[in-house]
Amino acid sequence: MTVLQMLKPHAGLRVLVTGGASGIGLVIARAFVDAGSRVHVCDASQAAIDALLEVESQSECNAITATLADVADKDAVERVFADADAQLGGLDVLINNAGIAGPTGGIDEIDVSEWEQTIDVNLNAQFYFARRAVPLLRGARDGGAIIALSSVAGRLGYAYRTPYAATKWAVVGLTKSLAIELGPAGIRVNAIQPGIVKGPRIQRVIEARAKQLGLSYEDMEKEYLAKISLRRMTTPDEVAATALFLCSPGGSGISGQAISVCGNVEVL
């Protein structure tokens, strides 16, 4: 195998992507399909799943299947794995992608229910999926892989977004601990820390923060970009490409890492 060939995942990987019917999750799912993988996704939005499956029904490979699920619901997680096993017949890669932005506000303004929901979706769900995936990953052909989506907010403080930042730091701790625990079984565990990623989600985040600080959207966006060394947003494709590399032979020696794909966000 040449070095160039090592940069592409082996064909036939069985991949589960949480939050995979839209946004970064969908871009990651499609990237794995393009690399010859079979992919099952779950998502909390029936509309997003319907749109995805409509596109898939017109595709020759029809390589993505889906389950409607709230990732914070333990019973729903069991349904996801039942469906994934029926569709894939095993598992080689878990992409723990699902997450929410959580509330924007001072610590004394955040409602307890909003804090708890952010913890449930962004952190507890990662545990639920990893817990169920590991027994399957032990049987992976080339050693299984878990990729957890953290955030640049998992390495920097983030005022007015404390629930989100707290969960994303916790995801890194979970990742590094699981890498140590599962390494002897050949299972690699890494986190990707996207920065300010182009798309509707970051637009909503900027709008909320602009309102919190009394700024226009345009001025708030300029402030965000000024904090990035490359002075541009990251693309979903750049995040997906990193996920592919981590699951390729070229990434087979990488575990326990939190890899920022962010253009070097300097401060939040």
TrEMBL record:
Highest taxon in the source lineage: Bacteria
InterPro entries given in the database record: NAD(P)-bd_dom_sf, Sc_DH/Rdtase_CS, SDR_fam
PROSITE patterns: ADH_SHORT (PS00061)
Pfam families: adh_short_C2
GO terms assigned for molecular function: oxidoreductase activity, acting on the CH-OH group of donors, NAD or NADP as acceptor
Annotated SUPFAM superfamilies: NAD(P)-binding Rossmann-fold domains (SSF51735)
Family per record: Belongs to the short-chain dehydrogenases/reductases (SDR) family.
NCBIfam families membership: PRK12826.1-2
PANTHER family: SHORT-CHAIN DEHYDROGENASES/REDUCTASES FAMILY MEMBER
Protein name, as recorded: 3-ketoacyl-ACP reductase
Species: Caballeronia telluris
